[in-house]
Amino acid sequence: MNKHAKILALTIMMTAFFSAPSQAAEDAALLKDMTSVIALLGLPCGQVVSAIKQGDNDHIATCKDGNRYRVFVNAEGRVVAQKQ
């Protein structure tokens, strides 16, 4: 393997290594934020265990108790959670 191929392989491995933890931290923060939003709106949930991004400020949140909500910002700029 020549020197350039080794450097390229090392660069790819390091990029994958360092990008995965930051993505996981963002995911954990998003789940915590979704849990807080749903609780503040007075809806049953407990804890959000997954969130799928639908668009900017638009997610489908799945709760530990099985409830699913679409959490988004409406035209008036308010955060809304609609049961799915």
Report on the structure:
With 84 residues, the chain is α+β, with helices and mostly antiparallel strands. It has one domain (3-83). The chain contains 1 helix and 4 strands. Strand 3 and strand 4 form a beta hairpin. The longest helix has 38 residues, at 3-40. The model is unreliable at 21-25 (pLDDT under 50).
Mean pLDDT, as a whole number? 80
Determine the N-to-C terminus distance. 53 Å
How many domains in all? 1
Beta-strand share of residues: 25-35%
> How would you sum up the major sheet?
4 strands, antiparallel
SSE string, helix = H, strand = E?
HEEEE
Unreliable segments of 5+ consecutive residues: 21-25
Shape: elongated
Structural class by helix and strand composition: alpha+beta
Helical content class: 40-55%
Number of strands: 4
Number of helices: 1
Q: If strands are numbered along the chain, what order do they take across the biggest sheet?
A: 1-2-3-4
The radius of gyration is 18 Å
In short:
By secondary structure, this protein is of the alpha+beta class.
Break the fold down into its secondary structure elements and pairings.
Layout: H1 3-40, E1 48-55, E2 58-63, E3 68-73, E4 79-83
Antiparallel strand pairs: 1-2, 2-3, 3-4
Sum up the structure in keywords:
single chain; 84 residues; alpha+beta; 4-stranded antiparallel beta sheet; 1 helix; 4 strands; elongated
